[in-house]
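Practice record 12: protein with zinc ion.
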Amino acid sequence: MRCIICKEIKEQEEFNEEHVFPDSIGGTLTQYNVCIICNSRLGHDVDTHLVNHFLVKIKRMIYRIPGKSGEIPNIFKKGYLKGDMEQEMRLEFDSVGNSKGVYMQPEKQFNVLADGSGNLHYRVDLKDKARLPGMVNKTLKRNGFPVMESAEILRRAVETREPAPEMIIEASADLIEYKRAILKIAYELSHYWIGENYFNDPNGEIIRKILIAKNFTDAKINKIGSINEGISLDLYKRLKQGGDFHMAVLIKDGNKIYCEIQIFDCMEGTIIVSNNAERYPDFVNRFISINPVTGEKLESTLTDAFKRLAGERV
Ligand SMILES: [Zn+2]
């Protein structure tokens, strides 16, 4: 069997399950034509940039789709209190994504004055009240001051409330690397739908080389298509039954075969997967949509997808 990424011929047991759309975005379409080595490399170097893209993380958080570690992403893991950038805070969630509320990170101010006396001020979340004496005494001890009775520390504590805390988060979004992951989906779908014949397609080769290259630049993609952050066109939204689903179509126009891909409603790509459609006389246009929450797939010809849209039973 030949791996579609490294093109080496390997034994059956050297292949494992490859998710065409990454598992961590709820992609349930799988195939077995990528070798274990390539599969794991694609995971590290390619898929990760899509799965951890800020826009995708927001979606994964909303839909509670865990990553490989089993953890649901939390984009509010690190932020600051509006009006007090010294005060770190976060929103906490349990393992299934239910909110546990706001948590203020302990904040300490400690000054030793010229006369040798000290000034210690701690600000902690109410959830940490029981830990406060331990924190205070640790600081005192470390700086050579006598420790205090826990009750005395708690007696001096003043409880204040932040009635409507606002959180500032810093977000940075990768604008390039995630595109390669979308290219990978187009390449694998072409193999999935066109079959073995796609192996030596010149455009397929261009894509394959981009996928295995050490460095990746946007310019390479521009030759064969465009990939952008964006909102779904109305037509695609309707094809996706209005859901915030993943979707792909493979469609022929003259001698070109296009793969149109949508990741949730936040990214889309149009890739020319072939300039040699004459190589595939049996080509039929294709459609797939995947519900990222339930994993449910709807796969058909694109023609049938349009018929369904028009209310025909197919
Ligand atoms: Zn391989």
